[in-house]
Design a protein that fits this description.
Elements (H helix, E strand, L loop, with lengths): L2 H9 L3 E10 L2 E15 L2 E8 L11 E2 L3 H11 L7 E3 L9 H12 L20 H7 L2
Parallel strand pairs: 3-5
Antiparallel strand pairs: 1-2, 2-3, 2-4
């Protein structure tokens, strides 16, 4: 059992963690962690899929070096057997690398895409290693 699955079970959630991995030959090129849920939203039963995030990883991104849209399509095809009603990617940075890929893939694969601005939360873009960043702050 993965750490994420253990945390979900401990929290008593009815969410299933689903991780899609894409390789180019033997090289790992993408990992997509999703949470699949059955929920009632405004009284309607829905099969929801969320791009996994949490308090520590508040701004989720697609984790890929290439093939972002193929990764997303593969993950969504697996979520709820490909029969999901709502996909949520909460708190994506507007200037991050994932938003454009998500817009393109979802516009091709769904009938309707809604974008709802979330709260603004400051973050610092780090273009170096964490150690180099910390050294630059001293």
């Amino acid at each position: 059992m993965s750490k994420a699955s253990a945390n979900l079970e401990r929290a008593g959630d009815e969410r299933d963690a689903l991780v899609t991995v894409v390789r180019a030959g033997s090289r790992l090129v993408g990992v997509l962690p999703l949470l699949c849920t059955r929920a009632r939203i405004r009284g309607l039963p829905m099969r929801t899929v969320d791009l996994a995030s949490n308090v520590v990883s508040y701004h989720p991104e697609l984790v890929a070096t290439e093939g972002h849209e193929a990764l997303l399509s593969a993950g969504l095809a697996r979520a709820h057997g490909g029969r999901w009603d709502l996909f949520r990617a909460n708190a994506l940075p507007v200037d991050g690398p994932s938003l454009g890929h998500l817009r393109s893939a979802l516009a091709r694969n769904t009938s309707c895409v809604f974008e709802d601005p979330s709260e603004n939360s400051p973050y610092i873009r780090i273009d170096s290693s964490w150690d180099d960043f910390l050294k630059s702050r001293r």
